[in-house]
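Box S1 | Example of a co-folding query
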Amino acid sequence: MKSPYNDTVMDHFMNPRNMGDLEDANAVAEVGNPACGDMMRLMLKINDDGVIEDIKFKTFGCAAAIASSSMTSEIIKGKTIEEAIQVGNNDIVSALGGVPEVKVHCSIMAEEALEDALKDYYTKTGKNLDDLNAMIHKYKGDRPEHH
Ligand code: FES
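Box S1 (continued) | Returned holo structure for FE2/S2 (inorganic) cluster
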C-alpha cells in the first residue's frame, strides 16, 4: 500500500526532531485532540530575552501529529515569543509539504500546544497574560477556541 504521506512527513515521523523531555523547561503544555484522542506535550525553555532556546515534545498520535510536532519544534526553535506566535498550523502543514486533507486537524494540536505553552510561561513568570492574548489576536484575529 502506498503511503498517503510525502517524504518530508515520513522523515519527520520516522526521525522526529527534538522528541523527549526537557528538564529545565519553563513553559509546558499538554493538549489533546478531541477528534481522535491523541495527545501532545510540549516543553519550552525561554530565556530572559524571550527567545525559545530549547524545545522538546512528546506526542502520542498519528504520523501527521508526530511529523507536525517535529516540524513545529524546528520552526520555532530560536524564535522570539512574538515570532513563534505567528506560526499557525497552515505554516506547519506547508513546511511539511502538505498532509492529506483528513489529517490537517492533526497539525492543529501543535499550534495549540505552542499557544498554551506560551500562556504557561506568561503565567509562571508573572507577565501580563493580556499582552500575550493581544499578540495572538493581532496575528491570528478572532477565532473560536479549539478547546
Ligand atoms: Fe489523531 Fe492525527 S489522528 S492527531
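The first strand starts at residue 27 and ends at 32. The longest helix spans residues 104-124.
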